[in-house]
Amino acid sequence: MGHTAVVVGAGIGGLAAAVGLQRIGWEVTVVDRAPVLADAGAGISLAANGIRALDVLGVGAAVRAAGHGQYTGGTRTPRGSWLARMDGAALERALGSPIVGIPRTELHRLLREALAPGTLRTGVTATAADPLRGGRARVRFDGARPVTAADKGPRPDEVPDTLEADLVVAADGIGSRLRTALFPAHPGPVHSGSTVLRAITDRPVDLRTDFEITWGRGAEFGHIAFADGRAEWHAVLNAPAGVRHADPLAVLRRRFARWHEPVPELLAATRPEAVLHHDIAELATPLPSFVSGRVVLLGDAAHAMTPNLGQGACQALEDAVVLATELDGAADVDAALARYDAGRRPRTTAVAMAARRAGRMGQQLDHPLAVPLRNALLRLAPSGVAVRAILRHAAWNPPLTRSFSGE
Description:
Elements: E1 4-8, H1 12-23, E2 27-32, E3 43-46, H2 48-56, H3 60-66, E4 68-70, E5 73-76, E6 82-85, H4 88-95, E7 99-103, H5 104-113, E8 120-122, E9 126-132, E10 136-141, E11 145-149, E12 153-159, E13 162-165, E14 167-170, H6 177-182, E15 190-200, E16 211-216, E17 219-225, E18 231-238, H7 248-255, H8 263-268, E19 276-282, E20 291-292, E21 295-297, H9 300-303, H10 312-327, H11 333-361, H12 370-380, H13 384-394
Parallel strand pairs: 1-2, 1-14, 2-8, 5-16, 14-21
Antiparallel strand pairs: 3-7, 4-7, 5-6, 9-10, 10-13, 11-12, 15-18, 15-19, 16-17, 17-18, 20-21
């Protein structure tokens, strides 16, 4: 009899974990509390490590085809002068892939389509997961309810109050209920000090670069070009948690009115109702383990980090691949989970710390003397410094096993 797994959370990490487990022969059920998967979010940049993970999962080629390579761009000041240029061609030569920009909806769709029919069940809220004796785990739900496989049509069955499996994967995001139940003493997520507003333009925009970020005092504005000519933009501001605006787009148009093009143009090409607003939180205190019995944490549930390095989704994809490769053909599942924990915690903790530092020296920096000093240092830095900084985190090679041949 084959192994079984329940994956809680149908975000990027949860879907990737399900694809990986199915590719090594496990029977997988994915549950998500949303009645309909709206694929909330705007756009995403995937560095080479994320693309390599997707290659192992069998969807890398489709993501490259749907995405747009980031070859030109860099970091600027609000007046438009360059602080550092990005050399996407050099990154591609070093890593085999450029950074790829893609709408989150497309990435979610491609991962869902890689699942076996009937895998995904929506409208199901998991409240806790319990390690059981005998190499099993149980996930508890908020009552029985009808469920729908959003990508494959309706299902007539129901999810009961509990499900048991050989493995439960907690991929239920930064506000993970399963993490809280497993580690009640952990302080949980904390506000980073920043808030982000983002959207995808309603129409194509004439952009001169594939990717840019601009740093002002306590503020960042960036864009990602998409293959269809539209773009994702984001505005990150120093702000306490909970601040919201009746018309956020109007606030941003005033805030960035004197910043260089294409910042005003990107905002002008956006519908007000398209703007998403989220406070940025992180797990500043690392977890003592990503594993509790046969329950394993993955993605933001395990190591939510600030977005300053663009590594959040890439680290979740790495998690999914490492978990599947460690379990592939493993005679001892518990030992495989221990190897996953031992490999992933140091890596993700280091990346999270680097992202936090990058935010403090980048977007969050607002001292009137510190900002020009940072800018001067960036201008004086050799051209290869930016490439080496990206290589430090993106130069990751997935462990391949007999079930994963890549693409």
